[in-house]
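Record type: monomer structure entry
Structure origin: computed from sequence
Chain ID: A
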Amino acid sequence: MTPTEQWEHGVKGGRERRLGMEDRFERRFAAGCAIVGSVALFLGTYLHPMDADPHDAVAAFAEYAADRLWVTSHLTQFSGVVLMVAALLIIAKRLEHTESNTWARLGSAGAVAGMALAAALQAVDGVALKVMVDAWAAAPTGEKAMVFQGAFAVRQIETGLAAMFALLMGCAVTLYGVALWHAWWFPRWLAVLAIVGGVSTAAGGIAIAYTGFSSLAMSINMPANSMLLLWMLGVGGVLSREQRSVSRGGA
């Protein structure tokens, strides 16, 4: 082998090692984002008060005003969404140059748009609504009706954002499910769970758009959200197991 060939061989080997390290980092990072994001979203939802009927504004506002962890729970939920979207973007990158590429690209676009909607939703629900319900709870009797109308208006903006967020994220996850169905390295049952959970979440968004936070909308959204959390945990588990297998093989 000539000196030039040795140099080219060394450069090629170094590039392959670098790409291998980047790939392992992406797997590990995506797995962590999927798992930690799912836990954060679950924890934020667990901290969210849910005793009052969300369709009963008076009862719901009274419960929200009494909650001291309102902003914390909503910021925790948002951090979970951000981490989960990060995992989805890395998965889309891993599906480049495969037959799943188009589906994954569309899904990643929907996921990023959904994250933007989640930020707007938490700004309205997690911050603005809390300010309004606190003002309503502290208002003198003669002013309560007027302040309540202001809080109710904020609630309607929240309803619209929640409907669009669920619809968009449901469609995005469904697209990911189709993409992962064609990915040989991904379990088919997780692809099916993504499709079923995504379609259900989108249906829940439509229900919120038409009926608000009604019992119908909640009965669709709660199981759908649970499916998506299980799906993300499953995705994190698959990526983590794949990373361990690669590490053992490299050793």
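Annotation 1: The chain has seven helices and no strands.
Annotation 2: Residues 5-19, 246-251 have pLDDT under 50 and may be disordered.
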